[in-house]
């Protein structure tokens, strides 16, 4: 049940079940108000003003208590939702997420996590308050009404109940249809949002290639699917909703007709008839809202399932007694790797990267350079063989030890919306201002800061969008410089950098490479030529290994690669 699942996910008693009890109690207060209405109406119609006044006072008193209790119950529900449901689930998710392999955090997953942590969990948070109240009242109110109708006259009570089994079946049908429809709509909505984002982000590339129409095609399709999902939901829910409404109205009519007949035959008085009419209206309201409850439950259930799926993800195994790395040399020992367990991306790779040397990885796109580099940082674990740092298998190092040994400068640099300084400080949070400035200067970020209106205090915008790609990479280099770790994993930008960024990056890179073990996915000829060793990757295997001098004269991939680069550069120079 949903409450059990909440307790389980929040890893403790959330108090949601007692909260259900609170709402039942509140519902009973509402029932007491209804119950007082009958003698009140009878006293009024019967001209017993004194009794009517007493009952009115009693009714007003109960209504006041009801109002206060309802307010308190809702507040209690909100607090439970925030403190005992949302917060523990967020903490559990957070604790679990930091143990997941870095490779798990793809862009798509980040998007899903953001929806889960904000929108979906918001729905879960509302479960112990509004959703639960509506749910309990939509059952309790009709039950109270049925009991009171029997008190008035058994025939009226029966007329209210006679269609109940059919109504129950129809409400389940409607709830399921609304829930399914909503699920489909959400899915189509999520697809549409990501297409819109993709369309917006791809604008420069699409316009330059004059291909806007083809991208609009994908977006148009997503809009179509979204519209289709909405229409489908309307169709899916149309009949059940119509049936449900018809049934509710039939019950209303049946009750009124029965009550009128009983009135006509003298079974009940006018007061009782008015009472029945008022309560029947209230019951119609409650019965009509059942479809809405189905949706709330379904959405909450979906969110809880999504949380469960994340918690079920295998964390990165941690060593029981971590070892220490003796030095910063890196060894790949017959390493194989596959992302999906089917296609081998790295195949029996063995490579020795001695301490304080620079190894350049080159090879065609998709040959496995990024994967190889990321196995060092344990984005994933090797499927076969082992990766060792300072002679110790990376799986035997604690995450803190592993991460403290390396700095990562990858292309997908993430900058948060703080100042340049704050972003650099992420490299070593306890660094003093002078150390941060020093790292920034080495990455030539002082030139950038001078240009910005508020200098060092300028915020870089969400994801660093106020900086150019090259400038963002320089911030990440400065982070690495500040961290001062013995191993540097570097992915040179493939995108062309302007001259100023190029010079700054190359200079900072030299500074970084000094005295460190560097593994670089290399694209620049100067980096490749200066490397202590070059590993050529093709189809997940190292096919050539040596220095530039050794490899350039040998027939093979490297020589042709170098030739191509030279030609490209020659072409570039003549066009300048
Ligand atoms: N997260 C992933 N899930 C599944 N397959 C992946 C993933 N990342 C990469 N691959 C696949 O693994 C292979 C190697 O990719 P990798 O990114 O390591 O190559 P690369 O040499 O760095 O390429 P590039 O120079 O284009 O960045 C490719 O076929 C790629 O499609």
UniProtKB/TrEMBL annotation:
Which Gene Ontology terms cover its molecular function? ABC-type transporter activity; ATP binding; ATP hydrolysis activity
Q: What class of enzyme is it?
A: hydrolase
How is this protein named in the record?
Answer: Adenosinetriphosphatase
Specify whether Cell membrane is a keyword of the entry: yes
Domain of life per record: Bacteria
- Mode of membrane association: Multi-pass membrane protein
Primary subcellular site in the record, as a coarse category: membrane
Is Nucleus among this UniProt entry's keywords?
no
Q: Where is the ABC transmembrane type-1 domain?
A: 24-297
Give the UniProt family note.
Belongs to the ABC transporter superfamily. Siderophore-Fe(3+) uptake transporter (SIUT) (TC 3.A.1.21) family.
Membrane spanning stretches: 20-41, 53-73, 135-152, 251-281
Q: Where is the ABC transporter domain?
A: 330-564
Q: Tell me the organism.
A: Propionibacterium ruminifibrarum
The record's keywords, sorted A to Z, are: ATP-binding, Cell inner membrane, Cell membrane, Hydrolase, Membrane, Nucleotide-binding, Transmembrane, Transmembrane helix, Transport
GO CC list = plasma membrane
What subcellular compartments does it reside in? Cell inner membrane
EC assignment = 3.6.1.3
């Amino acid at each position: 049940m949903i409450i059990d699942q909440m307790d389980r996910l929040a890893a403790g008693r959330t108090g949601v079940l007692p909260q259900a009890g609170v709402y039942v109690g509140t519902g009973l207060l509402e029932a007491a108000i209804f119950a007082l209405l009958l003698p009140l109406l009878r006293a009024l119609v019967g001209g017993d003003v004194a009794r009517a006044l007493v009952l009115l006072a009693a009714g007003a008193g109960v209504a006041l208590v009801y109002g206060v209790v309802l307010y308190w119950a809702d507040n209690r529900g909100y607090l439970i939702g925030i403190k005992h449901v949302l917060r523990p689930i967020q903490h559990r998710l957070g604790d679990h997420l930091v143990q997941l392999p870095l490779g798990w955090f793809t862009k798509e997953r980040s998007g899903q996590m953001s929806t889960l942590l904000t929108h979906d969990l918001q729905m879960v948070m509302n479960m112990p308050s509004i959703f639960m109240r509506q749910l309990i009242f939509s059952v309790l109110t009709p039950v109270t009404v049925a009991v009171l109708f029997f008190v008035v006259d058994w025939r009226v009570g029966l007329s209210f109940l006679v269609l109940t089994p059919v109504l129950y079946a129809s409400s389940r049908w409607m709830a399921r249809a609304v829930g399914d429809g909503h699920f489909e709509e959400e899915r189509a909505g999520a697809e549409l949002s990501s297409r819109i984002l993709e369309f917006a982000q791809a604008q420069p590339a699409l316009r330059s290639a004059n291909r806007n129409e083809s991208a609009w095609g994908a977006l148009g399709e997503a809009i179509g699917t979204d519209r289709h999902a909405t229409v489908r939901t309307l169709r899916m829910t149309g009949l059940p909703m119509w049936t449900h409404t018809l049934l509710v109205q039939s019950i209303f009519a049946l009750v009124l007709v029965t009550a009128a007949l009983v009135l006509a035959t003298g079974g009940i008085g006018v007061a009782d008839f008015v009472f029945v009419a008022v309560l029947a209206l209230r019951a119609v309201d409650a019965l009509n809202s059942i479809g809405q409850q189905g949706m709330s439950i379904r959405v909450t259930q979906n969110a809880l399932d999504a949380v469960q799926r994340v918690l079920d993800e295998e964390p990165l195994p941690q060593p029981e007694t971590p070892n220490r790395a003796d030095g910063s040399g890196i060894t790949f020992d017959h390493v194989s790797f596959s992302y999906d367990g089917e296609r081998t991306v790295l195949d029996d790779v063995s490579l020795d990267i001695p301490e304080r040397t620079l190894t350049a990885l080159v090879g065609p796109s998709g040959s496995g350079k990024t994967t190889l580099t990321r196995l060092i940082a344990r984005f994933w674990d090797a499927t076969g063989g082992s990766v060792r740092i300072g002679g110790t298998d990376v799986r035997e190092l604690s995450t803190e030890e592993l991460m403290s040994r390396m700095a990562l400068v990858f292309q997908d640099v993430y900058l948060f919306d703080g100042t340049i300084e704050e972003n650099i400080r992420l490299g070593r949070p306890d660094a003093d201002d002078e150390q941060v400035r020093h790292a920034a200067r080495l990455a030539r970020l002082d030139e950038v800061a001078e240009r910005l209106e508020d200098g060092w205090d300028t915020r870089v915008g969400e994801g660093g969008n106020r900086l150019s790609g090259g400038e963002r990479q320089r911030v990440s280099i400065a982070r690495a410089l500040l961290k001062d770790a013995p191993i540097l994993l570097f992915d040179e930008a493939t995108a062309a950098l302007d001259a100023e960024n190029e010079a700054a990056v190359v200079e900072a890179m030299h500074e970084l490479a000094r005295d460190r073990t560097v593994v670089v996915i290399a694209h620049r000829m100067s980096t490749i030529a200066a490397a202590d060793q070059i590993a050529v990757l093709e189809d997940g295997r190292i096919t050539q290994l040596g220095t530039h001098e050794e490899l350039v004269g040998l027939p093979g991939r490297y020589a042709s690669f170098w030739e191509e680069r030279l030609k490209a550069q020659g072409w570039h120079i003549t066009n300048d």
